[in-house]
Design a protein that fits this description.
Layout: E1 7-11, E2 20-32, E3 38-44, E4 52-59, H1 70-73, E5 77-83, E6 90-92, E7 98-102, E8 119-123, E9 130-132, E10 147-149, E11 155-159, E12 166-170, E13 176-180, E14 186-188, E15 193-194, E16 200-206, E17 211-218, E18 222-225, H2 232-235, E19 239-241
Antiparallel strand pairs: 1-2, 2-3, 3-4, 4-5, 6-7, 7-8, 8-9, 10-11, 11-12, 12-13, 14-19, 15-16, 16-17, 17-18
């Protein structure tokens, strides 16, 4: 789904049956909460084209795993209000908090374009606190619309939409490592995938001559290729030259 398109958020029982609507005009990104009973998502603050976004949490299931009552479903929690870069990505952390990216703006402002960098923010489970991840200025990729949280919730991997750069950020300290630098005219077509809480896999240029390959990184072992012996046609579309097609990273890749 394109970011200028909108969807209806629905739940459907795996054993079959009709789906139940939870929200309308929902952005492309949503995520289940750790307890599997509610979902977080974004919606426009005013009109479908608005960059001002609300982060909502809606309860879908009750404590017994049954569909929540209509009254509960129709009263989502408002967790945050932010100016979010497109795409409007949102992810739940294992402890119930929510990770978003947003522009640290003060409104009203002069001019038409904000001259600030996007930052990562953590929204508390009750929606009462919004805490910036303490990254150093200029340490993050400029595009924070594509990120994936590690299974333990301690790190997040960021794939820059306009290039093929991949970064890993420690959510506690803000320490940022560029695990795959940007290469001129190349950009990602996949999201990174965590193999474990400490091992990240992602697409990157590797070898001589350089070609798209599936890599694995850990802080202890560094980076190495997993796909050196794979047929080239299996990996070639994971990265692309910008002049071939103007596009953004696609869906999250599966861990090999």
């Amino acid at each position: 789904m394109d970011e200028d398109e909108w969807a209806s958020l629905e739940v459907c029982p795996l054993k079959g049956g009709e789906s139940t609507g939870l929200a309308q005009q929902v952005g492309a990104s949503y995520d289940w909460s750790p307890n599997g009973r509610s979902l977080v998502y974004t919606g426009a603050f005013s009109g479908t084209g608005s960059v001002m976004r609300r982060v909502h949490r809606v309860t879908a299931l009750d404590e017994e795993g049954r569909l929540a009552s209509e009254d509960v479903r129709q009263n989502p929690d408002n967790l945050a209000l932010a100016v979010m870069p497109s795409p409007y990505r949102v992810q739940s952390l294992p402890d119930g908090r929510v990770l978003i990216s947003a522009l640290p703006l003060t409104l009203p402002m002069a001019g038409t374009e904000p001259e600030v960098e996007s930052r990562l923010y953590i929204v508390s489970e009750d929606g009462k606190t919004l805490t910036p991840v303490p990254t150093a200025p200029g340490s993050l990729p400029s595009d924070l619309g594509y990120f994936v949280v590690s299974p333990d919730g301690k790190r997040v991997a960021v794939a820059e939409g306009g290039s093929d750069a991949v970064a890993v950020v420690d959510l506690g300290s803000g320490k940022t490592a560029i695990v795959s630098p940007a290469h001129p005219n190349w950009q990602c077509r996949t999201l990174p995938a965590w193999k474990s809480a400490t091992e990240l896999t992602f697409a990157a240029l590797d070898g001589t001559p350089a070609a798209p390959r599936w890599m694995i990184w850990s802080e202890e072992s560094g980076t190495r290729s997993l796909s050196g012996s794979w047929p080239a046609q299996r990996t070639t579309e994971w990265l692309e030259l910008k002049e071939d097609r103007k596009s953004q990273p696609a869906a999250e890749a599966k861990t090999p």
